[in-house]
Structure formats: C-alpha cells, structure tokens
Amino acid sequence: MIIHIVRALYLVVVLAFTVYYATTSADAIQQGPTYLTMYILIPAVAAFAIIMVDMFYRRKRLQLMSGLFFGLLAGLVIAYVLGQIVDLVLRVYPTLQNDPIVALVKVLLGVSAVFACVSFVMQTKDDFRFVIPYVEFSKQTKGSRPSILDTSVIIDGRIADISETRILMDSQIVVPRFILAELQAIADSDDKLKRNRGRRGLDVLNRLRTSDKLEIRILDTNIPTVEEQREVDAKLVALAGHLDGRILTNDYNLNKIAQLRGVDVININDLANALKPVVLPGESMSVKIIRPGEEPGQGVGYLEDGTMVVAEQGRDYIGQTITISVTSALQTSAGRMIFGRLDPNKSFSRERKS
Prior knowledge:
It is a single chain. This protein has about 350 residues and is α/β, with parallel strands linked by helices. The chain folds into 3 domains: about 1-125, no CATH class; about 145-275, 5'-nuclease (Rossmann fold); about 285-340, CATH 2.40.50.140. Helices cover about 50% and strands about 15% of the residues. It contains 13 helices and 10 strands. It has helices spanning about 1-25, 25-30, 35-55, 70-90, 100-125, 150-155, 160-165, 175-185, 190-210, 225, 230-245, 250-260, 270-275; strands at about 145-150, 175, 215-220, 245-250, 265, 285-290, 300, 310, 320-330, 335-340. The strands form 2 sheets. It has a 5-stranded parallel beta sheet with strand order 3-2-1-4-5. Helix 1 (about 1-25) runs antiparallel to helix 3 and helix 4 (about 70-90) packs antiparallel against helix 5.
C-alpha cells in the first residue's frame, strides 16, 4: 500500500513541477498551446513509464519502510551528482544556461533519482547490505523466530488443532509460496487419493488463515539461496536458514536433513508422542486385539490415541478385549509401540476356531 502512495506522489510531483514551469515560462507560452501541451505531457508520460517499469519489474526482494531514510539520502546524493553533470554540460553549451527547460530537467532528474532509490530500498531492505560498515536490516518477524510449515504437516491437519491451543501465538507462521504451489498441484492430481489429500491440505490452510489465534503469512520467496534449490525440501531448509526460523513437519526424512543443516525442526509426531501417557513395564492395560502379529502367537491391537500394542499369546483372542502386562515400549518419530504379554492374573475364554 505504501509503495503505491509513493508512486502516486511521484507522479503528482512531476506533474506539479511541469505545469508550474510551463505556466511561468514566457517562451513556452509564446510557442502556442500545442507546444505547451507537449511541454507538460512528455514529462508526465516519462514519469508514468518509470512507474510501470517499477511495477512490472518484480525481481525485487521483500518489503516495507524502514529503508526509506537510506533511500531518500541516496536519492538526494545521486540527484546532486546528476545536477553537477548537467552544469558541466551547460559550461560546454553556454547558450542553454538560461533555458527554463534545463531547470526542469534538473528537477525531474532529482525527483526520479529519489523515487528510484526509495522504491528499490523499500522493496529490498531485508536483503540490503552496505559494504561499509556492512549493515543489514533486521527481518520483520513477529516473536522470536518464525515457524515454517511443510506440505506434510498441512495435509496432516493436526497443526490446526495445535493452533487452537494458542501455543504458537509467540511465533509467526510462514507458508512459502512454493509449498502452496505443491499443495495445489497435489489437489489437481489425477490420482483420487492424492487429490483428496491436497484438498484436505487446502482446507486446513484456509482454517489456519481464518483463525484469530495465530498470525499466518504467505511468503513469496525471491531469495537466490532458496530459488537455486530444485527440491522442495531443500528450498524449505534454505528458507529456514535464511529467516533463522524453524520447520514444522512430520516428514522423517526432512527432519533428518534439516538437523544435518543445523536448522531447528518441530516434528508433530514427536510432539504428539511426548503428550501420550507414559507406560512403565509391569503395568496392566486393556486392549482389543484386532489382527495377528508377525511372530507366532502375537496379537496386535491399538489404543485410542493410535498407539500399536503387540500382545504375546494374544493371537487366539482376536476380536476380544484382553488385559496385558507391559514388558517394554519403543518410542520413534513414526510413533510408539507397546509390547506386553497376557496378564497371568486374568483369565480369558479363548476363541476356538473350527
């Protein structure tokens, strides 16, 4: 919004100076209305062309207004240098020194230089660096560090439930444009399962955007270190490193790659597993046996939170709820597995098969 105001202000200033010089110049008035119209129209068209070039040239990086002072300062310096160059030209052609067009040209060059510098710095300030004393503008992120969403964690959907708990309010949620493009590609897939997953991800993303419990931002990344990467996971890791952010994912491979690159990762599966109640060896628990296990005599069941339970001597109790004594538990990023055997203190009627 601010950049549009600057563009409009630039156009107004150019028109104002042009009209002023046209109406106060006796030579321009004596040339007639056609000359007067061209006197005003040509600078206005040139200013409009500069604005259009600025709008359509989008290979600029990032935003806002903390670089306004530096852009203004640099523009004034460039305007002064251009004015001196014009004065040197006038010394070679002294007959032009009293021409009012020369003064107008100097003003227009100065205004255009200030506008170009302000526009450039405002749109590139997050990456703008001075060689001396090597100053870099701090990135505008809410909270300590931004959290960047992976495609898998959006499709998973649990991130929307986590956001309702307000534990993510201290951090801005960032969804890169290439992640959104990948979601849209999955939603447009010919495969029905992939298409449903993609549409679910878009629904979850829309739920996050409409939530008042967190701030979410769709980020257009025009960062060379990110754009030079081909794989989405590599782009995500590079972006997290550039923003000094952390990645929210449930992708095991991305988790390992990010850790190798020194990027912090919050694995939703690890978070969910950490919130599950701890089961100690020797404790008793009830579980419904659903299917036979891989080893002879084993039966497999699941708790309400999805934890797999492997029961020794449970194969004969498929379809029944039994009580087991926990022998061990295995915790991984893919989930938790509990191992146990039939509780000797409980008796069960076996399901006999003919």
